Amino acid sequence: MNPDELRRQFIRWQCRIRQYSVRKDQGRPSRGMRPRLVVNNQDAGNMTVVLVKSESADLTRQFKYIYQKTQDPADRYQQAIKLLSEYYYQVPDEFSDEVVAVYPAGSAFVKRMTGVGEGCLVFEQGNQRYTIDCRMRDIAETEPKYQAAYWHNRLFNPNLGNTTKILGFAPDWKTSEFMELDLLHIDDSA
Q1: What is the pLDDT along the chain (190 residues), one digit of tens a residue?
Q2: Taking phi first (over 0 means left), then psi (-120 to 50 degrees means alpha), and beta for anything else, what does residue 87 get?
Q3: What predicted TM-score, i.e. pTM, was given to this entire model?
Q4: For residue 33, which of 89, 76, 86 has the smallest C-alpha distance?
Q5: Which end of the chain is more exposed for a tag (fewer CB within 10 A), N or C?
Q6: Residue 149 near residue 50 (C-beta atoms within 8 A)
Q7: Angle between helical axes of 57-69 and 73-83 (0-180°, round to 10)
Q8: Is 114 helix (H, G, I), strand (E, B) or coil?
Q9: Burial of 132 per CB tally in 10 Å (0-12, 13-18, 19+)
Q10: By the 8 A CB rule, do 92 and 148 touch?
Q11: What backbone phi and psi angles, to 5 degrees, belong to 44?
C-alpha cells in the first residue's frame, strides 16, 4: 500500500471507530482511539488521541459555545455526543492526519516526552493494527489545532484545567504500516 493510501485508510478507520463510539458507546474511547506510544523501543503507555479537522475554526466555536452556555457537565457531555454523532465524522478527508493528545499542565508524561522528537504509535482494534512512525511536538496555544482539541476535551472532561499541554503526533506514512491481524491465531500469553 502506498503512503497516501495508508493515510486515507487510517483516517477513514479512525472516523468509523469514533463515529461508532459516539453513536453506540456514549463517546467512550475505544481501544483504537488509545494507541500505545513506543519511544526508543520502550513502551511509554497508552494515551487517548483526538482527531482534529484541518479547518476547525467553526467547530471550535461550536465546542466553546456548548461549554459556555451551561455549567452542567452532563448537559455539555450530551450536547457534545449529539454534535459528534450527527455529522462530525462523515467526511474523513476533512481531518488532519496529525493526531493530538491533551494533558494537564505539569503532566509527568509530557515532561518525559518533551524533547524526544520521534516515536511510534501503535493503534489496534478488532483485526486491524496500524504502526505509525511519527514526529512529536508541543502544539502552541495560538494554533487552531490546539484550540479545537482543547475545547473538544473540555466538553468531555470537566476536570481539565484552564492550562493544558497538547502534543501533536505527525505521521511519517512512508515508514508506517498496516497489518490485518489473524484473530484466530493470536497468542494472548505473550
Answers
A1: 899 999 999 999 999 999 999 999 888 999 999 999 999 888 999 999 999 999 988 889 999 999 999 999 999 999 999 999 988 899 999 999 999 999 988 888 888 777 788 999 999 998 999 999 999 999 999 999 999 999 999 999 888 878 899 999 999 999 999 998 876 555 544 4
A2: alpha
A3: 0.89
A4: 89
A5: C
A6: yes
A7: 150
A8: coil
A9: buried
A10: no
A11: -95, 0
Site of grid cell 486515507? 8
Residue that has been written with the C-alpha cell 448537559 in this structure: 75
All three cell numbers of 84, joined, read 459528534
Contact 149, 167 (CB under 8 A): no
Beta strands in the chain (DSSP E): 36-39, 42-46, 99-104, 118-125, 128-138, 164-171, 177-180
Q: Are 60 and 39 a contacting pair, CB within 8 Å?
A: no
Neighbour tally for 87: CB within 10 Å: 9
Alpha carbon distance 62, 18 (integer Å): 19
Backbone angles phi and psi of 59, in degrees to 5: -70, -35
